[in-house]
Write a structure and sequence with these properties.
Length: about 375
């Protein structure tokens, strides 16, 4: 029986765990490091929690079901997931990578992956002729869509066609839209990345990351890597993400509704010069996003008229916190220049449009009238 999305958020594909016989509705937290064996040559299916844990396994089954993959692996953070995934590549390999990436991904690629002999071509995959960057040693295309923070939308199907022609992996960071709005594996991707800290967890109370795939070969290699590098998600954190996912559809719909209303307000605000949101009809990414996703999400970026106004807003909001991260029930304002993208080289950051006047907003699930009132008073109090 194939369940609908909201049901999968609660039960996954209803694959039972034979070790649980109490009938507990909330999946138990198996807070154990190791497991007893009946005898030599016989196992309960669990040996050591670095390899696997029942709570983490249940979470992985749910996420795999949501992304329509054959396997999902839960890591201690989104960056831990990407770091482990990069071990699929060898010194001398080359990747084509979206230029407008989360700053932590860029930091990893520039300071760790390059040291390990992997090279990168940073490209605006939403507009560039990506195929001309393919080299003999290219092994993968890595994209975010929409991108963080400038909200560029890349055609996943088009990237998949290029990847298949050249025998490359297509890796898609799907954090911004979550599996509720977008399923890259169905569009031709080989690997999907999530920072589970964000929309999947949804409550800003724990860290997590995921690698999801529809390839048995990749699954086998990632299973070897997660037990080797030891960055699997702990039982308590696995349970928190499981709990968060149960309300994913409700949160995504409400947060998107709030984001659309905030965008409509910002477009009328004289102090705001640009608003970046893929749901703005006629904007650069609107048609592509509509063709490959079921919604536009709750992330938006806007540029105000001066650095002074940007700093004033961050200091004078009374409801909306000035904080890193996104995807939680609380609306958050982020200053990419000094927070998420502080380690991106200045020339790259500025070329991407991330300047001192740019703010990123993650809409939460509060009453939107309160959110707009807070932004209005913060902007309006600027002398």
């Amino acid at each position: 029986m194939e369940f609908q999305f909201a049901t999968k958020c609660i039960y996954g594909n209803k694959e039972g765990f034979t070790g649980e016989s109490t009938g507990a509705i909330s999946f138990p937290i198996y807070q154990t490091a190791t497991y007893a064996h009946p005898e030599v040559g016989r196992s309960t299916g669990f040996d050591y929690s670095r390899l696997q844990n029942p709570t983490r396994q249940q979470l992985e089954k749910v996420v795999a079901a949501l992304e329509k993959g054959i396997d999902a692996l839960a890591f201690s953070s989104g960056m831990a997931a990407i770091t482990a995934m990069m071990e699929l590549f060898q010194p001398g390999d080359h990747l084509i990578t979206e230029v407008d990436l989360y700053g932590g991904s860029t930091r990893l690629f520039d300071n760790v992956s390059k040291k390990n002999g992997i090279s990168f071509s940073y490209v605006d995959c939403s507009t560039a002729d990506v195929e001309r960057y393919v080299q003999d040693n290219t092994r993968a295309i890595f994209i975010e869509t929409p991108t963080n923070p400038m909200m560029h939308v890349t055609d996943i199907r088009k990237m998949a066609e290029i990847a298949k022609r050249h025998d490359l992996l297509l890796i898609v960071d799907n954090t911004f839209l979550s599996p509720y709005f977008q399923n890259p594996l169905e569009l031709g991707a080989d690997i999907v990345i999530h920072s589970g800290t964000k929309f999947l967890g949804g409550h800003n109370d724990t860290l997590a990351g995921f690698v999801v795939t529809n390839s048995q070969e990749i699954s086998d290699r990632m299973r070897f890597l997660i037990k080797t590098v030891g960055s699997g998600l702990a039982p308590m954190d696995s349970w928190l993400i499981l709990r968060g996912i149960k309300t994913l559809p409700l949160r995504m719909e409400k947060a998107q509704e709030n984001a659309k209303a905030i965008v409509a307000y910002l477009l009328t605000e004289p102090g705001v010069k640009k608003v970046y949101y893929p749901g703005i009809e006629g904007s650069a990414g609107y048609a592509v996003c509509k063709s490959q996703a079921r919604g536009f999400g709750s992330m938006l970026t806007f540029e105000v008229e001066s650095r002074e106004l940007a700093l004033h807003i961050l200091k004078h909001t009374k409801l909306i916190p000035f904080a890193e991260s996104l995807g939680g029930v609380e609306t958050l304002l982020t200053y990419p220049m000094t927070q998420t993208h502080a380690d991106v080289p200045e020339e790259v950051r500025l070329a991407n449009g991330i300047n001192e006047r740019v703010l990123r907003l993650s809409a939460g699930i509060e009453d939107v009238a309160d959110l707009i009132a807070d932004l209005k008073q913060a902007i309006g109090s600027f002398a």
